[in-house]
Amino acid sequence: MTGFSPTRLDRWRAGLADHVERGSAPALVALVDRGGETHVAVAGGLTRDTLFRISSMTKPVTAVAAMALVEDCALRLDDPVDDLLPELAGVRVLRELGAAVTDTVALERPISVRDLMTSTFGHGQLMAPPGTYPVQAALAEIGLEPGPPQPSLVPPADEWMALLGSVPLLAQPGASWFYNTAYDVLGVLIARASGMSLSDFLTARVFGPLGMVDTGFSVAAESLSRLPTAHAGTSVFDPPSGQWSAPPPFESGAGGLVSTVDDYLAFGRMLLSGGGEVLSPASVALMTQDQLTPGQKTGGGFLDFSRFGWGFGMSVVTRRTDVFMTPGRFGWDGGLGTSARMDPALDVTTVLMTQQLWTSPTGPLLVHDADVWAYQAVL
């Protein structure tokens, strides 16, 4: 494989800079890599080592950590989680999604590790207007309504799990895909199975081996100058001294990490290379293939299942519908303004990081255009 066209890389950089000038985001850092040849574009006054709140780009990292425990046989994909997550043992299930919160039935089977990995354990964000379903009020009351991460406001893990167990599941385990909540539960499972905090386990098994020195659940005081303000439209969502400036009460496996383009490139290259010192090639292959049945691709209203499947913690392209939509390309986005994808067929990794919150699950045009410009530069 060859690398990139220098002329077309200039087009990539110019297009990204133009988006910033037009106000798509206050600033950005983008990266494209092919087989170890890496190019970075910066715009809006940021630098290559700028820290970003990567929100849901945390999910693939959490899934990798869980797979490490599967390889240890500390977890088994089809084992129930009842012993480690007793808050979910015997939880009730809504008779149907539109039922009253008190109209429930018993579990047909226990929740398994696989249900968490595939986001089919029965809970998640309901992407519907408030009041569409009676259960939405109960979910909002315990902090599970759709919205950006708020790490300083989430209670500690044991308290959070008790709250989660107080609300019935939206569907039977394994029945339907729902977004987000599974990976917060998976983070708690990792901590309890390993006997370590989630951050300590990630450092030992993922960040340390990959040299991801800038990735974690908070930013140290001496590094806060590298963390830009996060924006929601023209408003400030989170300043550098805000919610990521101190360790959170709850380490969110669904959306809590801060990282850099180079740290996330190291993570992506690990997956493209077959796992390196972190996972086996067999585990990477399992994680990065569509794991959902047709019947599970019904819930959440979040992912376009006509073009994507879902592996463990990340989407997988199933049909080529655009320049960058290589079947088998995998990765995920962060609603606080970030995106990363890995393409095994072309050996390409793309990372885009901004501090502008998304306003829809499909993301802004900037994300689409950044992918097109990156791919048109590939030789």
Automatic annotation (TrEMBL):
Coiled-coil residue windows:
none
Residues forming the Beta-lactamase-related domain are 17-357
Q: Where on the tree of life does the source sit, at the highest rank?
A: Bacteria
Which Gene3D superfamilies does the annotation name? Answer: DD-peptidase/beta-lactamase superfamily
Recorded hits in InterPro entries, A to Z, give:
Beta-lactam-related, Beta-lactam/transpept-like, Diverse_Enzym_Activities
Name it.
Beta-lactamase class C
Upper classification of the source organism reads: Bacteria, Bacillati, Actinomycetota, Actinomycetes, Pseudonocardiales
